[in-house]
Structures are given as C-alpha cells and as structure tokens.
DNA sequence: GATGAATGAGTCTTCATTCAT
DNA sequence: GATGAATGAAGACTCATTCAT
C-alpha cells in the first residue's frame, strides 16, 4: 500500500497532536480517538496515516527524540568554548518548565516501554548515541582547552552527562515545582562540571 | 487476630505477584487476571483484598518504595564512615542487574504515572524524602569528617544524590547490558563523590 | 486458561443460538452481538465460552455436522434391508423443508469457507467420511442382497451418494419452494437407486 | 459511442478482477480496495463504475453465470448426438481443476448468499433456467434417438442433471485433489446417464 | 473521468467490576 | 472467605462510501 506519500505535513500534525495527548494523559490513557480529537481530524485519519496505534507511538518517539537532538545540536553550535557549549547543551536540555514537563512526561512513558520493548529501546539508543556525540565533542574540546581532566575517556564519560541530565530532569518533574527548574538546571551543570574537572582528584583520594 | 494476620500475608503475596507481573509486562498490559495468575489465586481474591486495580497499583508502589528504602537504611547502618556509608548506599541502590531491572522497570512505569497523577507523585515524594534523609545523614557525617565540602547545604545536596543514582540506573536499564552494571555503579559513585568534594573547586573556576 | 469446564450446556446453547443466527443472516452478517442476542446473554459471555468468533463458527460446524451424522445413523439403524436403509438415509437427509433450509443455508456458508480454509475443509472431510461409512454399509448390504450391482466398489460409490444428496438439496434450497421438497427427495432417491442398480447397464451400452 | 464502449470494457475488467479476488479471498474478505488492487485501478474507479459493493457482486454473478452458460452452449452446439452433447455439456462443466476451483469457490459464496437473498436467487434461477434448457434439449434429443427413457419428462428431469453436476463438483472441490477431477467427471457422467436410461427399470423394481 | 483523502459506523476483543453461589 | 460466571463499557481497527480536486 502506498502510504506516507503526499501529506507528510499532516503526518507531522498528527504526531504533534499525539505528543500533546500523550503528555497530558499518558500512553495508557491515550486512545486513537483522543489523538484524532487533538488533531481535529476523524478517527479514521489517524489510521489512514499510521498502520496502528503502536506505529503512531513509535513514530512519535522517533520524531520527538530527533527534534530534541536537533535543538541541542543547534544550540551548542553557536558556542565556541567547551564550558559555553556545555552551558548551551544543558540549557537546551532544561529549556523551560513547560516544555520540559511536556517532553519528559512522554519520555518517561517511552523509557518505561523501552525497558521491555526492544523497538523502543532501539530508538532511545539512537537518541543516546546522538547525545553522546554531543557530550564527546564537548569533553574533547574541554580537554584541548585544558579545563577538563585529560585522563577522562570521552567515549566513556559522554553517557554520564546524559545520565545526570535525565536524572535531574526526572527528579525535577517529580517535584512538580516550576520554580525549582532553574535550581535543577544549575545543579545539573555543577554536577557535570565537577564530574569533568575532578575525576583525578577523586582518584587521588579514593 | 490470626485471621487478620493471614490477610496481611496474602495481601503481601498479591502485591509481590503484582510486582513480578508489572515488571515483566508493564502497567498497561497487566490485568487483574494476570496478577491473580501470578499469585496463584482466583481473580475474585484480588478484588477481595483490594478495592480496585488502581488500589493494587498504589499499594504496590507504597510497598515497593518502602521496601527499597528499608534495604538502603539497613545497608548504611552497618557502616561508620561517610564514604563507606555512601558506598553502602549506592551499592544497595545498585543491588544486582536482575533486581535492578525488575525494580526499575516498575519504577519507571510508576514515575510515568506520577508525572501526571498526584497520588503516585505523593508516594514518590515520600520515597524521595526518605532517600534524602539518608543522603543528608551521609553528607553531614562527611562534612563532620572533613571529607565533604563544608559549604554544601545538606538539605539541598541530598536530592542530587538520588537524582544521580536514578539517572545512572535508568540509563543502565536502557543499555540492556548486565555486564555494564558494575561500570555504572562505579560511575555513579564517582560522580556523587566528585559532587560532594568539589563544589568549591567549581565555584573557583567558574 | 481453563475454559469449557463447567457449563457445557451453556456452550451448546450458544452454539444453537449461533446456528439460528447464521442460518437467518449468513456468516458475514452474523456478529457476536447477534449471537449473544439470539442466546439471550451478554456479548461478553460468548467470548467467555469461546476464544473468538472464528472458534464459535468452527465449533458450530463440528457440532452441526456431528448432529446430522448421528441422526442419519440412528435412522438407518432402525431398518434391515438395503433399500429401506437407503430410504431412511435419504429421508433423514431430506428431513423437512424447515430443517433442511436452516441447515443447508449454514452448510453452504460452511462449504464456501471450506473451499479456501483447510480448517473447515477438515471438519467437512470428517463429515464426508462419516456419510461415506453409511453409504458403504448400505451398498455392501445391497450387494449381499443381490439388488445392487455387484461390480460397484463400495468405497468409490459411497461418496457419490452424498454428492447426489447435496446436489439435490442445494438445488431445492435455491428453488425456494417447500412444496418441491418431496419431489426432490424422490428424485434423489431415484437417482441414487438407478446409480446403484445400473452401472452394468451403462457399461454395456456405452 | 467510443466512450461507452471503453466504459463497458473497463467494467468487465473490474468484474474479472473482482472474480479473481473473490475466488481467492471469499466474499467476506474482499474489500473494494482489494478489487481495485486486482484491477490495478484506484478505489474511486470501482465506485465510478458500480454504485456499491453489492452492485459489483451482483453484476459479477450475472456476468459469471452468463459466461459459464455461453461456454456450455457453445460446447454442445458442436455435437450432434445426445450422448455426445451430454459428454460435451459435462466436460464443459468439468472444464479443468483450476477453472472449476476458481469458479466454484465463487459460486458457493454466491449460493450461500442466494439461500437468503432473493436478488441473488433470481440470478441463479436464470442460470438454472438456462442450464435446464440445455438439459431439456439433450434429453429430448436422446429420447428421439431412442437411447433415453421415453417416459421421462424432459422438463422435470433437466434440473436433475444440473443438481448432479453441482453435487459432484462441490464434493470434488471439497476433496482438494486435482487428480480426482477426471474421476468425478466420469462419475458425474455415469450417474446422469444411468438416470436418463433407467428410470423405467427403477419403476419396475421399486 | 480519476484519484485518494477523509469520514464514521460497525466489528471484534479486552477487561475491570459485580455478584450469586 | 473464595470462586468464576456474567456484564458491558471502551478501545483498536476495518471499510464502504463520499467528495474535493
């Protein structure tokens, strides 16, 4: 069957509607009817553009992680120094309470699914890989600049940055306090920087 | 009363069955029939002990987080120094690939729900508070011992420890590689220690 | 899952309701809701007793063909001579306009399905085999009695009897004229008898 | 008009596509999309040439039975004697395993529908009438030739020929064995001949 | 003439919940 | 206390039909 042919635009529209719907209601509670309602189309249209509900969700997550990654890329590209790039990266991750809430709600549903389903895990792995590429770039630049510990393996350290970002953002989401968003962003930045600066210190004192 | 006791035991049994079931299948896919099957009781029994499916899940998460917390408490109590307590705490959090997988799958489902539902959020907050109490105790002890940065607010820093632990464990879960479990535990420990040691450094260089 | 345990009676009731429903509306138009309505139970009950709609239909056809066969068996057992048994067999097949209509409508749906689906074909083959056993018995008895052509292979001739019966009953059904039922029964009987008597004649004149 | 002609051709094409589709999938499973796919046209075209799905099916069956009848007519016209015409008729009915399978699958679906729906029954009646005209012609010729029982009413006997043909072909279809096709054709021929030869015998011995 | 996007009614199926035994 | 039969609401999915282009 020839699908996806013409209106890729409409597909995107449906995905965005699904994103809003999932964010507000959660994976379990989102029905195709709800997605259709959010997209202001009939139920049949969703099926017309996507084979199944599962497909909608999978495409949603591909689209979403790709979008996040692109934004992060764009924001670090504007900066030159490692520290500024790191700032930019983390600021991009902590974009705003509203957007973080919307995204991380969906992302948590996604992670929960990914913990059991290889298809979702694969998509997340792609996201991780992309984020790690960013992390690696920043670490290596910082090492060249002499401000990050030269002994760190960029390869092994990059994932840790993402782990810390996600850890903080998830906790922030759970706190349900928008006013703490800035605090969490700073905390995250601090933790990452201390991680990149001081592993040698840690080794000495261990 | 003996009867009451027996009831309580059976309740626990059902909760444990629900835990296994949710871990394997996820919140969405778990039905009361499945829980009953895991518990080797009839479907009616589950309803006999719990008002509704929702109640089962809520009780499950109360029980689960309480259990995790107790284990963590027990493990740090055995140690005297701050560093050893921290080790014990993190080792307790990174108990084993199998147990971490089982727990964090459920916990992710839980967090996803909690991001929208105040009831679940409340339960998680209790868990966070408990964990933060542990964190605070360790930080303050370390500060007394002179090995942790004295300028850190224990109150504000304790949550960060949990954020880092969860961040690492979630990423580990996504990697689906049991052999990396140890690596993630060490990375987590390093990050936490560098966080506690070096905030002054960070301040200086910023 | 433990199904089919207790109320086999209710299963039969649902099958009978399905039989009536299919006969009146046809396979395509019969929904589980319709079957439930005919059985005067809720829609869920049908699913409780049968895995799927397909299962209902398959069981229906097993049950139906078994029932027809049993009746035919019972009717020929009462007779002693080959001709009388043949009469009984065909009379049993041409039981009454109402019952023939009800059964053959369903049976035609069944045959249509069986022409493409091995599962249904298998069930029909069982029915054919049973009918052929009846035919064989009659033919061999008639040959012993000296009234049927001794040169006929009972094995090869028995299926022909059923083919002729079905051919006539299907045509009768299409005519939609109850008053012709008797005529078709007699025509069927004649054709079968001439088939059993005269193959030698045919050979001679060919 | 050329336009009209083109239309007619396309209609035939769609009907033929529908025929193939129904034969392979059955009435229930055939959708307009499937028919369109088989005909290599868009879904809209089918609706352009036919009012509704039902119309497609009805026209299909008219077209199909007319086609079969024409072929049978053509084949008996080539022969002179009654026996040869009968041979030709039955050979035409038993044209080949492939074609019989294709046709009788559809025809069974058709009969199943006809058993409840007067519209389809009407079309089939037309087919029966046509077939009976052939049968009558053969019988009367045979009676003139002195090889068929002169006491037979051609009017009443002709339908029986078709009943026997259909009975055998349906059973053959159910056996799913192409190698038996020839056997069933011969058996059908024998049965019809014995039917036409020997009714007087039957009367005598009854 | 032809296309295929859009609609929404209708179907199967699942499952939490109720309740008679 | 315990069971599992019964219910029916709700969801995913299909598909004939319509209609703008």
TrEMBL record, chains A, B, C, D:
Keywords: DNA-binding, Repressor, Transcription, Transcription regulation
Residue ranges: DNA binding: 31-50
Residue ranges occupied by any HTH tetR-type domain in the UniProt entry: 8-68
InterPro entries xrefs: BetI_C (IPR039538), DNA-bd_HTH_TetR-type_CS (IPR023772), Homeodomain-like_sf (IPR009057), HTH-type_Tx_Regulator (IPR050624), HTH_TetR (IPR001647), Tet_transcr_reg_TetR-rel_C_sf (IPR036271)
Pfam families per the UniProt record, alphabetical: TetR_C_6, TetR_N
UniProt keyword Ligase, yes or no: no
Matching PANTHER family: ACREF/ENVCD OPERON REPRESSOR-RELATED, ACREF_ENVCD OPERON REPRESSOR-RELATED
Protein name in UniProt: AcrR family transcriptional regulator
Organism field: Paenibacillus brasilensis
Lineage start: Bacteria, Bacillati, Bacillota, Bacilli, Bacillales
């Amino acid at each position: 069957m020839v699908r996806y042919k013409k209106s890729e635009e409409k597909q995107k529209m449906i995905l965005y509607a699904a994103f809003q719907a999932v964010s507000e209601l959660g994976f379990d509670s989102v029905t195709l009817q709800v997605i259709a309602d959010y997209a202001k189309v009939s139920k049949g249209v969703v099926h017309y553009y996507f084979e199944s509900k599962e497909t909608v969700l999978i495409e949603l997550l591909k689209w979403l992680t790709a979008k996040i990654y692109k934004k992060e890329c764009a924001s670090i590209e504007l900066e030159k120094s490692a520290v500024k790039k790191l700032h930019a990266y983390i600021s991009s991750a902590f974009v705003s309470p509203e957007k973080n809430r919307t995204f991380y709600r969906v992302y948590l549903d996604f992670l929960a699914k990914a913990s059991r389903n290889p298809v979702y895990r694969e998509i997340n792995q792609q996201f991780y890989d992309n984020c790690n590429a960013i992390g690696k770039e920043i670490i290596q630049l910082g090492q060249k600049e002499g401000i990050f510990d030269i002994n760190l393996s960029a390869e092994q350290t990059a994932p840790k940055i993402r782990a810390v970002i996600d850890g903080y953002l998830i906790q922030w989401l759970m706190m349900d306090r928008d006013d703490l968003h800035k605090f969490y962003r700073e905390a995250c930045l601090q933790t990452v920087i201390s991680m990149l600066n001081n592993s040698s210190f840690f080794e000495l004192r261990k």
